[in-house]
Known about the structure:
- The chain is an alpha+beta fold.
- Helix content is 25%, strand content 24%.
- A five-stranded antiparallel sheet has the order 4-3-2-1-5, sandwiched between helices.
- Strand 1 (39-45) and strand 2 form a beta hairpin.
- It is globular.
- The N and C termini lie far apart (44 Å).
Amino acid sequence: xxxxxxxxxxxxxxxxxxxxxxxxxxxxxxxxxxxxxxxxxxxxxxxxxxxxxxxxxxxxxxxxxxxxxxxxxxxxxxxxxxxxxxxxxxxxxxxxxxxxxxxxxxxxxxxxxxxxxxxxxx
Length: 122
């Protein structure tokens, strides 16, 4: 298994959490709220797992791993495929209307062991 090279970033979202596994949508959304200059990504990793991460200028912040890595390395190492991208305003609207951190679209991945999605209510 290939290991991603860490990217040195002095200013970027860092999310404090005691537990991280299974909380990617929540932690990535909180990272976006801390630093809205990033883009929230909802996608799939390893070909089947729904996942959320942040992207900015060729750098990924994965809140579950609590690591900044180059986007290229992240794609290669985790097989990351972007399904949706959100800036803070749109993400906040989805969080408010669904009552959850995501995913807000029909994802091709498995979310915490279950294939599902929260529908946005108008």
